[in-house]
Design a protein that fits this description.
With 300 residues, the protein is mainly α. The chain contains 17 helices and no strands.
Length: 300
């Protein structure tokens, strides 16, 4: 074989040399495809394999690419895909604790900025923000970064106005966050941000339940004196508040009428009535003479 032919054959073979790397990258990229699949088992396996891959290879560029793809995927056009990307992001953040949550929150807000989104993509952007906060919550690191907790709550508050798309998802996510943070973080960081929501507890079932969750979790902060300042009374269930509570319960019952279930806020109020020694008042006035009389369907 001539030198020219050898050189030609070598040159022809050169593009095949990176095949191993390409194959490896293909495996890496396939994780993100699997995260978007409708089968939950496939998504869970993809999360597990992705984290194992990242830990084994320990490549900074691949970790950076992972965060980009996962943050993008939070607003996936296919609804079943969003939870997969959210779960993956939370688990990756849990596995790589040197990555600050603040940096990821900033990415989420920048990528899914509602003001910059086109109208037809605004709904996806809303969900991108919510699933982003859920991911930060699922990292189990929120309580270590109080300012990120505050940022998450403020973002959820801004999304609460979009009920036609998100329903009560932002408020429920806030409740999940409250269930995780220690009382000192609530008192020092969140109390001021949530004050308006807590003062408006009797406006909607979601806001009332937010107050009840906060009351259960942070009794030392929300003492009777503080409640009086927020609501005008040192207790929740009393004769003055019963009419407002009744209206909220009717709204809650109407919302779950098709499911024919007891609204969650009712159970929380029942527990509180026992604690405040106002069970008889609550049951007779708010339930029997109020919600049950006009809304028999959901509670039977």
């Amino acid at each position: 074989m001539s030198v020219e032919m050898v050189e030609l054959s070598v040159k022809a073979a050169e593009p095949l040399r990176p095949a191993g790397n390409l194959q490896q990258n293909r495996v890496f990229l396939d994780f993100f495809w699997d995260l978007a699949k409708p089968d939950q088992e496939v998504r869970l396996k993809a999360v597990e394999n992705l984290i194992q891959y990242l830990k084994t290879n320990n490549k900074e560029d691949e970790l950076e690419y992972t965060f980009k793809r996962l943050v993008d995927g939070l607003a996936h056009t296919r609804e079943t895909a969003r939870p997969g990307f959210s779960l993956a992001l939370g688990q990756v953040l849990s596995a790589f604790e040197d990555v600050s949550l603040q940096s990821i929150l900033n990415r989420i807000k920048e990528k899914h900025n509602l003001q910059g989104a086109k109208k037809k993509f605004s709904r996806n952007a809303m969900f991108g923000n919510v699933f982003g906060v859920l991911a930060l919550h699922q990292s189990n690191r929120l309580s270590k970064e109080p300012q990120v907790v505050l940022g998450c709550v403020q973002l959820l508050q801004s999304l609460s106005q979009h009920k036609q798309h998100l329903k009560d998802l932002p408020t429920k996510t806030m409740m999940d966050i409250l269930a995780e943070v220690p009382e000192e973080v609530f008192e020092e960081v969140l109390m001021g941000a949530l004050q308006t929501d807590l003062e408006s507890a009797f406006r909607t079932p979601e806001q009332l339940q937010l107050l009840l969750v906060a009351l259960q979790r942070f009794p030392q902060t929300l003492k009777p004196k503080k409640l009086k300042k927020l609501l005008g009374s040192s207790t929740i269930i009393n004769a003055d508040n019963i009419p407002k509570i009744t209206e909220v319960l009717k709204t809650a019952a109407h919302a779950v009428k098709k499911e024919r279930i007891l609204p969650a806020v009712v159970l929380d109020l029942l527990k509180l009535s026992l604690k405040e020694d106002s069970f008889e008042l609550f049951w007779n006035k708010a339930i029997t003479d109020g919600m049950l009389k006009e809304q028999p369907g959901p509670t039977q």
